[in-house]
TrEMBL record:
The keyword Signal applies. Residues 1-21 form the signal peptide. It comes from Peribacillus asahii. Keywords: Signal. This is Lipoprotein. It comes from the Bacteria.
Length: 180
């Protein structure tokens, strides 16, 4: 009888140990599965908001899909600041779930910036209206505000300006203007 009780105790210990091993291996498998589901997508940075506190904000668009991205400098894994036109690679835990961004890295691709020359035709309130001087069918007119002007902010009617666009996805995105 004593041996039977000992066998039952040993059997129950072995059974509980095998159950623990199964549970641990399932957990390890789940962690591996999450890591292998990491997805990436390329974006072009279209807007940078420099914050005094140091946690800058970034917006970007993808050429691969209609998804846009918003993130702060906390998510940047590479060194240095990002600029408009930079290409980044974003890593997601699951791209179909909101707020699943893990981190972003700057790629070595050159910035996709295109320019167009314009002549200011009128100023209405805080809006400047300019017409393309290259007669581009893509960008016949440009409307911008003082916030869009980089450098010398004194622009008058008949002044020539350069509009800077980021070539990203289905359309070019205007992001700044400079006086020529």
């Amino acid at each position: 009888m004593k041996k039977l009780i000992q066998l039952i105790i040993i059997a129950s210990i072995l059974f509980s140990l095998s159950a623990c091993n199964t549970k641990q291996s399932e957990t390890a498998h789940k962690v591996t599965a999450v890591q292998s589901n990491e997805l990436t997508q390329e974006y072009t940075v279209t807007k940078v908001i420099d914050n005094v506190e140091g946690n800058d904000e970034y917006f970007g668009v993808s050429e691969e899909s209609d998804n846009n991205i918003y993130f702060t400098s906390d998510y940047i894994q590479s060194t240095g600041q990002l600029h408009e036109g930079d290409t980044i690679e974003a890593f997601f835990e699951d791209i179909t779930i909101d707020d699943s961004l893990l981190y972003v890295k700057k790629t070595n691709k050159p910035a996709n910036i295109v320019t167009e020359s314009f002549k200011v035709t009128s100023i209405e309130g805080n809006q400047y209206i300019a017409t393309s001087t290259t007669h581009s069918a893509d960008k016949p007119q440009l409307i911008f505000t003082m916030d869009d002007i980089e450098g010398n902010k004194r622009i008058n009617v008949n002044d020539h300006v350069t509009g800077y666009y980021i070539e990203a996805g289905k359309e070019d995105i205007f992001y700044k203007v400079k006086r020529e």
